[in-house]
Automatic annotation (TrEMBL):
PANTHER family: SULFOQUINOVOSYL TRANSFERASE SQD2. This is D-inositol 3-phosphate glycosyltransferase. It comes from Nostocoides veronense. Residues 27-170 form the Glycosyltransferase subfamily 4-like N-terminal domain. Gene3D superfamilies: Glycogen Phosphorylase B (3.40.50.2000). Keywords: Glycosyltransferase, Transferase.
Amino acid sequence: MSPRRTRRILLAVTSTQSLRLLAGFPEYLARSGWDVHVVCSNPPSDQIIAGCTVHEVHMRREPSPMIDLVSFVRWVWLLSRLRPDLVVAGTPKAGLLGMVAAALLRVPLRVYMLRGLRLSTETGRRRQILALIERLTVWASTHVQAVSFSLRDEFVAAGLAPANKVIVVGHGSSNGVTVPREAHEETAKEARQRLGLPPARTVGFVGRMHPDKGITTLLEALHFSSDSPRWQALLIGPEDQPGFLDQQLSALPPSVRKRVVYIGEIPDPSTHYGAMDLLALPTLREGFPNVVLEAAVHGTPTVASDVTGCRDAVVDGVTGLLVRPSDPRALADAIERVLSNPSLRDRLGLRARERVSHHFRREDVWQLTADLYSSLHTNCRSGA
């Protein structure tokens, strides 16, 4: 009798940038005995994931029928060669192409990793097209793994999947965060001095400079805020469209504009969370915002929009505050409430760190996810 083949899993995301969503997890699966293959567009030539094999399948994020057809053919060719036991594909384009190709080749387990819902902020024909893509992806999958309970609820309520097909692992989160055993002792003031930032109280924003992320709401909140307590906005992240942020800033009075510090995209934003008195996330849609967990590691609480995903990451009044989306005055009021009350800020930050330590340690999220995949694989082999 020939020896049983090692369990083979294929993990896919659309872009190289999205590989950070998997950081450390492919290696963890490889150490756990899986034969791990990773797929994305244009991986760097020096991209090495220990114990794993990286494959390139060019995919374009936006709809492009001819390019998508070529990508689909490449997907089919790759899967026919690898014959994985399990395909896990997340981000919309990789999810669609990966799930449909895997279904065509009868891969026994096909998990659509639902990290967010782009159609939440769309209307009209574009929303209809995105909904159709989601339904097709779900149809081709055997399971849907949502990164948060509120995302699962929105997805099911929109009629995109039956409730019994959507799974949430643990308390949610796509990949957890690294939590040092010891809390950071450096104060926000000391961190700002170390980084050479202006000394004012600081409200941070980490993410893409894009309307969906609420950057306009934050800048308007800065305008609406009173002089006491006076605060500055520290913006970290790339611009989706060059010149977008300059356009937003030009609409502000000079006295407000000079209270904005934009440092762009940096390799490791965790070096700056300690310099923030507060994280602001006035986003319009999320799956599960990892930046909230990253800030919590440093004892930094968050004021966020009361929207899908944020409701899972922030416990209102316990680890941070939730406010109405697209309401700069409500955001300004919440920010000033926290900054003007140091004991409240410290209490929220302490509870945030305790929660992330208990429920979102990266190794724990990896273990729960690996257990899910092993269980699905065992049940599939046994015919359960």
